[in-house]
Amino acid sequence: MATEPKKIIIDTDPGIDDAMAIFLALRSPEVEVIGLTTIYGNVYTTLATRNALHLLEVAGRTDIPVAEGSHVTLTKGTKLRIADFVHGADGLGNQNFPPPNGKPIEESAVDFLVNQAKANPGKITVVALGPLTNIALAVQKDPDFAKNIGQIVLLGGSFAVNGNVNPAAEANIFGDPDAADVVFTSGADILAVGINITHQVVLSGSDREKLASSKGKFAQYLTGILEVYYSYHCDAYNINGVYLHDPTTLLAAVDPSLVTCTEGAVRVQTSGITRGLTILYNKKKRFEEVTEWSNMPSVKVAVTVDAPRVVKLVMDRLLS
Ligand SMILES: O=c1[nH]cnc2c1ncn2[C@@H]1O[C@H](CO)[C@@H](O)[C@H]1O
């Protein structure tokens, strides 16, 4: 008998690569998307909600609920770092899409996460594609959340490589380092996919041409919004291609065999010039003194990725 699809909630800040990940999820029979929760990051939360509703309308999946998330960081910070220079002012490549018809549900993202985890203990995977504020709030609101949630597969961190905000920090962790530290030390089953992984997974200029010449609904839509993302990568990284951050993370939740992992405690620097830095203790050395990593729960951190297989899955599923 076929196994039941894995239930996933995508916590998202759409965002061009978020749009790709959401469409991929909807084209992946291995998973069932039971909701989207929204967060600031690539755009402000209000726009993230609007874009999430819009993307579900494009996909014809208005049956999937959207729950709006936090507008401020875990410590109530309102000075947010928004990556509109990566995704366009509208978050979706400046395409002037009409506003969505739908509305978010009454339940907040945090309540949705807590209640779904409680109702389906051990059965739900959260795929977290933005700053981790909503997830940290869920951990703090319900002492059982970390136990009830099946797994958290998150895009975040830059393990042993430079960040993309500055040499220390990756954008999602930099967006709310306090939240990230709460999540990493929560005891939940976590798989972190950092930019040490996603910078190996590139959708090339010729892949984009294949998308452009496809008649597929998602391929056509993405061709339009990807323009801005390609031009940013050309500018910032001098490459004719884009990093598949969110799609790689989503696919790691769909098929864990796409990555290999190491395990250990992860702590996040929350202040100073290295604010947002993620440091994994790989347990290869016993330290003489008690450290901030001692007795902290282990998480999985992806260390290798089968990049050709990820790109092929992305192309096959988005072209169809
Ligand atoms: O240079 C950048 N600065 C800020 N955010 C970025 C940059 N490049 C990509 N992203 C966005 O941040 C997440 C991965 O860190 C992804 O959502 C990506 O679209």
Give structural notes:
By secondary structure, the protein is an alpha/beta fold. It has a single domain, classed as Ribonucleoside hydrolase-like (Inosine-uridine Nucleoside N-ribohydrolase, Chain A), CATH 3.90.245.10. Helix content is 39%, strand content 18%. It has 13 helices and eleven strands. It has a nine-stranded mixed β-sheet with strand order 3-2-1-4-5-6-11-9-10, with helices on both faces. It has a two-stranded antiparallel ribbon with strand order 7-8. Strand 1, helix 1 and strand 2 form a beta-alpha-beta unit. Helix 1 packs antiparallel against helix 11 and helix 10 packs antiparallel against helix 11. The longest helix has 21 residues. The chain is globular. The mean pLDDT is 97. Inosine (NOS) binds next to helix 7 and helix 12.
Topology:
Blueprint: E1 6-12, H1 16-26, E2 31-38, H2 45-59, E3 66-67, H3 84-87, H4 109-119, E4 124-128, H5 133-141, H6 145-148, E5 151-155, H7 171-175, H8 177-184, E6 190-193, H9 195-198, E7 202-204, H10 205-213, H11 217-237, E8 241-243, H12 245-254, E9 259-268, E10 278-281, E11 299-305, H13 307-319
Parallel strand pairs: 1-2, 1-4, 2-3, 4-5, 5-6, 6-11
Antiparallel strand pairs: 7-8, 9-10, 9-11
Helix pairs in contact: 1-11, 1-12, 4-5, 5-8, 10-11
Bound molecules: inosine.
Organism: Trifolium subterraneum
GO molecular function: inosine nucleosidase activity; protein heterodimerization activity; uridine nucleosidase activity
Enzyme class: hydrolase
